[in-house]
Design a protein that fits this description.
Two copies of one chain form a homodimer. Chain A is α/β, with parallel strands linked by helices and about 200 residues long. Chain A is about 45% helix and about 10% strand. The N and C termini of chain A lie close together (about 10 Å).
Chain lengths: ~200, ~200
């Protein structure tokens, strides 16, 4: 891959202990001679600024960080609903198009289709759409097909890992470690590696 | 922009009348001298093939179509939950990184934060996370900040349009038309336009 820098995509940015989680992720990267780059590395001044300026500054900081990375490991564990966090999905697409190697993991092994069925049981509006003939992806995939196959095209993969329940599923690092291990093997075996 | 081809991203692909919706979107593009490219244009053979092969073929077809387009109009109306369809978010990120001009619209004007609050009222697991200190974006934005600011960086924007309710919100075309109108103006005013 292009370099040894790995962008750490995922909804952990919203956790109260985000700094600690990114610290541990970076340690795992280091142990494989890779450099983890967190969306929070580039500090954004918030004090006294209007919301739109803060939001734009966060985007630009993430954007700059992504552009410096030759790889990405994304946490696509379902977040506030049936699937991946929207910002993470954007970043996966961005990094695939930018030519990075992208791996992903989910600490939920339930196929996307089953999660939609569970949502329908609780949500009459969604159930009405599905009953009205909306199709639901039925490929046995954990996530919308653009993500696993985008990762595959990039030279990475969406890995199936040990499921975790509750709030801890966003703090578990087994999936992340599995991705970094695969990424490190990809980096050293690739003829284009510039390490 | 790079050319006059516009990738039509959105969850309409899952609707039973997807073909008719894309036909109407293409008509709108034509009326502005642009060419709409639907994710369904490149037909994928499904009969007798295993699910994973069909899914990969769909990815590759969408991927090929995206690469031929210098612009994208994305429907980010919340889909099966609090936000944008995951495949659409991936495609927006992909097209921004690929250098396309990306516009988006949502037929839901409620800020993201209020949608999460409504979700918390129905879903104790999500409420527990938020009460446990997970932050919820509070920038008054309709969607995760990566999307509107990614669009802005590309030369496009996430437009605020007339809200629509129920199943019809995915068939309403006012937001799409507003984006194409803005895109056409961008295309003709841009010094880099090759039209």
């Amino acid at each position: 891959m292009r370099n040894d820098r790995v962008y750490l995509a995922g909804p952990e940015v919203f956790l109260p202990d985000a700094d600690e989680i990114f610290r541990r992720k970076k340690e795992i990267c280091s142990s494989f001679s890779l450099v983890g780059v967190s969306p929070l590395d580039d500090e954004v001044t918030r004090a006294g600024l209007p919301a739109a300026r803060v939001a734009r500054a966060i985007y630009r900081a993430n954007r700059r960080s992504m552009r410096t990375c030759g790889a990405c490991v994304a946490n696509v564990t379902p977040f506030r609903g049936v699937g991946v966090d929207a910002g993470t999905a954007f970043e996966v697409g961005f990094m695939v198009a930018a030519g990075a190697v992208v791996f992903g993991y989910s600490h939920d092994r339930e196929p996307y289709r089953e999660r939609v069925e569970a949502l329908c049981a609780d949500n009459p509006a969604v159930a009405a759409h599905v009953e009205g003939g909306w199709s639901v992806e039925d490929f046995g995939l954990a996530e919308n097909l653009m993500l696993p196959f985008g990762m595959e095209e990039s030279g990475g993969a969406l890995l199936s890992v040990q499921p975790e329940e509750g709030a801890d599923r966003f703090r578990a690092l087994a999936g992340f470690r599995a991705c970094v291990e695969r990424l490190a093997a990809t980096a050293t075996s690739s003829p284009a590696a510039d390490a």
